[in-house]
Structures are given as structure tokens and as C-alpha cells.
Amino acid sequence: MNQSQLENIIREKQSFLCVGLDSRVDLLPASVGNRVEDLLEFNKKIIEATSDLAAAYKINTAFYEQYGTEGWGILKETLELIPDDCFTIADAKRGDIGNTSSMYARAFFENMSFDSITVSPYMGSDSIKPFLEYGKTVIILALTSNAGTVDFQHLESSGKPLYQHVLETATGWADTDQLMFVVGATRADHLQKIRSIIPDHFLLVPGVGKQGGSLTEVSKYGMNERCGLLVNSSRGIIFASPGEDFATAARNEALKLQKEMAQHLI
Amino acid sequence: MNQSQLENIIREKQSFLCVGLDSRVDLLPASVGNRVEDLLEFNKKIIEATSDLAAAYKINTAFYEQYGTEGWGILKETLELIPDDCFTIADAKRGDIGNTSSMYARAFFENMSFDSITVSPYMGSDSIKPFLEYGKTVIILALTSNAGTVDFQHLESSGKPLYQHVLETATGWADTDQLMFVVGATRADHLQKIRSIIPDHFLLVPGVGKQGGSLTEVSKYGMNERCGLLVNSSRGIIFASPGEDFATAARNEALKLQKEMAQHLI
Which residues of A fall within a CB distance of 8 Å from B157? Predict the structure, then answer.
């Protein structure tokens, strides 16, 4: 799925919700089981319960990679369970020298068929360009939502923080329709500043839901004419209930967010 | 293996050579085969032919990840083929928010048993700390050797390039013995500057061999009392010959580098 198809999906579903499949064996409901292989059934039930409400699904590779080959198998099978009317994100945060990034691109765009991947900008242009060659969407880390952002992302150079340099430089690497940026900002001033630099790009916003951001603020200061937002919620949805009703509970949480999003989309 | 054991190995073998197992199906000798599964036999032969000359092996995960679960299986089996008297590096360049980095750490330090992993510093302290909890070595990207370094790593903040901020900040996160830095510098002035900031840390230096750095310069300006260097060569060794003699040719190339290194170690 490309970004103009994503825009259509967002309008149809009245939702810019991204469900993060951060599934964990230790948090699986007892009714599902507690083995690594049970993750697949859990993901299947979550996807079935939420896919009409979600514009996108994000699979963080770390959650699967920790289980080695078995985890990678489940990652791939989970991707195949996601219906075609949802945008898919490999949250992999990869990045290496050019010929090596080509192989990561092959992993996520050929061996698996994700619509997009998150990448780390530290190594610069040639670490990102191989991902762009597939014509799919590349989602670049700009301003993340964790405590460590202060270490480097806010370092000022020529009067601008590093994350702003990333936004300005990376927009030169590809058309707007092929890039997105991870923006963990839920603060109005940061979002306004970011929108002044990249008015047209999609932003992938983590940190709404259990991580605590405000959907109202994000919508007010982050939305553009294309919507331009994918707001992620992981634990708040998928682990909404530890009981047998986990899928219904997940749907209810997703529905709450979707309804709120529909208001903001007017 | 910890860093003091690595120092002993370097003295014993008179070598600070790191062999990069950047194995590729399309470059396998015909005598080995041309299927993904043949990578394992190739790696086995390369390791057998070079392990007495190598202080370390570096496995770049991208080369295996591109083949999905089969590739991950080969990655793990390759690691198990490396003898105990070699330091092992997962060249994975991972990094995510804290709880997610914990899972990457589990992937490479528990599911597999690497001695070290390369990580990207962009997301700051909490993206690195979970890797440090294993007491193993964490190798942080500082100054890489690719063209894209100019985009962000050389941006100046408070009169210092970003990579220098990474060096200075990251050294506060753990003891010297638990950190290393990727330093792609083969230029004397950069190496001298880096050594003035981190005199005692080990540096992992890519880009000697087919990528073209000078071992003499690196040794002259990068070596410290512990040696403090792991110099990587990948293609120059493992693909030294496309013929049946690939393992002998690999050994010969490794031997050349080891002999040169022995001179520098005096």
C-alpha cells in the first residue's frame, strides 16, 4: 500500500490508528497459552478484532527477534494475517552502509512484504537510500519519545536541534509520498515547529495510550490536509484485558480511539 | 569473552584481526553451491581456515536476515562454529526505547550467545543501557566509514562534531571494559582526535582491506597499551578466491594481515 492508498483508508475507516503488535509471551492471556508459538494465535485474534478500526499495524521486530528463528517465523506469518486494507510497518530501526542496508531492505520488502520500515538516520543518506529503491515508504526516526532523546536529538547545531537537521536533510532524499517521520512529540510547541518544517509529510506518532500522549494535542497541531498522522497504540489495545475477553477488550479500546479520531478528522 | 580475555587472545595470536562473515550466496564458490543453506558450509570452511589468525569474527545480521528464518538459523549456527578463543560480534546496529532494546539484547545475548553487539546511538542512553546489563561488550557507532557520515555525524554542536558528543556522552554509561566504539576513521587526524577523547577504549575499525584503509596509519594513531584495536576485513578475506581454493586463499589473506599486525604489536 502506498501513501495515497493509506489516505483513502484513513478517510474510509475514519481512523488514523496504528495498532502496535508488541506481543509478549509473558503477557498472553491464559486462554491463549504461554508458548512462543501462541503469539501467532494471539496476533490473529487481535487483528481480526481490530482491523476494521485500524489504518495500520506496526510490528516491532525486537519482540519477535528475541525468540530467534521461531520468532522470525511468527513475525512473517503475522504480517500475512494483516488484511490488505491496512498499511503495514516493520518497526525495525535498521540502518547500515549502503550495500548492507540493501540487504535489510530485501529482508523486509522482498522476503517479507511490508509497506514500510522504520530506519535510523545516524549513518546518513547512503544508509537510507537502498530502502527507497523499492518505491515503498521509509519512516525515519527524527524525534523519538524516550528519555534518551535529550542525549543527541536535541543537540543544537547552527541554532537547530539534530532532529530538525534530520527532517530538513532527509526530505531531500525522496518525494514526500515515500517518506514518513517518527515524531514522538506530543507537546504542542514541538509539533508546531515540526509541522513548519515538514507541512506535508506523514508522521508516525508513538506514545499515545498507555505511554501517555494526548490525541487531542497531536491532532490539533500535527494534522494536515492529508491527515498526515498515524498514531500508534500498542499495550493499551492488545493487552487491554488479561482474560479470555482480550480480543473484545482490544476492540473496545481501538473503537474508543477510532471514535475520537473520527472527531478530529472532520 | 570479555575484553581482558580479548587482550590476551590478541597477544597470543599476535593479531587484532576481525574477520567479517559478510557471506553472500551470489558470491559463493561453485564448489560450495549456490543455495542459502550452503552459506553455513562456506562459513565453516572460512572459520576453520582462519580462526588461529583472527582475534574476532563479526557477523553482520543483514546478510542473514535477508533470507528470513532460514538466514537466522544459519546466523545462529555460524556463531556456534566459532571457537571459544575468538571474540564474537553481532554487527546488528540495533537501538530502540528501553524495553524494546531489552528484547534485542535478549536476541543476541540469550537466544544467541554473542560476546558483543553494535548499536546505534541516535535514541540515547536508555536505548543502549539494556544491552549493558548483560555485562558483555556494547559497541557504539561513533564515526562510520560511509559517505553519509557527513550528513549528521560531522554536524558541529558547541564546537564539536556529533560523533565526538557520542564518544564523550557514551563513555559515561559504562566502564571502559564494557564499551567499544565503531570508528571508521583511517585518517591520522581523526584517529588522533578520537584517541585524545577515549585513550583507553577498544575501537572497532571497519574499512581496512578491500574498502581501502591503511593498517599502518590505524595502528600508528589508534593503538593503545591494551592494543585497543579490532580491525575488520570481510570481502578481502572471505572472497579472496572464487575457486575451490577459497579457504586457502582466505587463510593467505588473513595471514598477510596477521603478520603485518604482529609487526605493529611490538
Answer: 155-157, 162
Task: Give, in order, the Cα–Cα distances in Å from A54 to each of A9, A28, A59, A190, A226.
Answer: 9, 21, 13, 26, 17
Length of chain B: 266
C-beta separation of A58 from A20 below 8 A: yes
Amino acid (1-letter code) at residue B5: Q
- What CATH number is associated with residue B15? 3.20.20.70
Are residues A245 and A44 in contact, defined by beta-carbon separation less than 8 angstroms?
no
Give the domain extent around A171: 3-265
What nine digits make up the cell of A34? 504461554
Contacts of residue B139 in chain A, CB cutoff 8 Å? none
- pLDDT tens series, chain B, 266 aa: 999 999 999 999 999 999 999 999 999 999 999 999 999 999 999 999 999 999 999 999 999 999 999 999 999 999 999 999 999 999 999 999 999 999 999 999 999 999 999 999 999 999 999 999 999 999 999 999 899 999 999 999 999 999 999 999 999 999 999 999 999 877 778 899 999 999 999 999 987 755 556 899 899 999 999 999 999 999 999 999 999 999 999 999 999 999 999 999 97
Whole-prediction pTM value? Answer: 0.97
Q: Do B68 and A107 touch (CB under 8 A)?
A: yes
User: Model ipTM?
Assistant: 0.96
Question: First and final CA of chain B: distance in angstroms?
Answer: 24
C-alpha cell at B104: 534485542
Calculate how close chain A gets to B200, using CA atoms only, in Å. 22
Contact indicator for A124, A150 with CB cutoff of 8 Å: no
The answer to whether residue B76 is catalytic is no
B contacts of A169 (beta carbons < 8 Å): 151-152
Of B73, B111, B146, which is closest to A97 when you measure between CB atoms? Answer: B146
Cβ within 8 Å, pair B107-A60: no
| Total structural domains within chain B | 1
Distance CA B97, CA B124 (A): 9
Whether residues B123 and A147 touch (CB distance < 8 A) is answered with no
Chain-centroid distance of CA A255 in Å reads: 18
Cβ–Cβ gap A95/B120 under 8 Å: yes
Q: Is A22 helix (H, G, I), strand (E, B) or coil?
A: coil
A188-197 helix and A162-170 helix, angle to the nearest 10 degrees: 30
